[in-house]
Amino acid sequence: AYIAGRIGSTQVTLGASTLTAPHPQGFVASLDPAGTLRWARTLDTSGDSTASAIRWSPTGTLLVGGLFRGT
Prior knowledge:
Elements: E1 2-7, E2 11-14, E3 17-20, E4 25-31, E5 37-42, E6 49-56, E7 62-68
Antiparallel strand pairs: 1-4, 2-3, 4-5, 6-7
């Protein structure tokens, strides 16, 4: 399973992993079938961002949609 969201402050802890960001930042995380965190990544934009949609492309690429400010 995959989840998308937003770090509203400067950090969020998911399982044993802590994501940090200098400003509100979108993130994507992968969970195994038992709900254990596999990995988590921020969107790494220069401004505020939110990840709000996830979809697999026909070629197997994980696509993330949402909003961002900056570059």
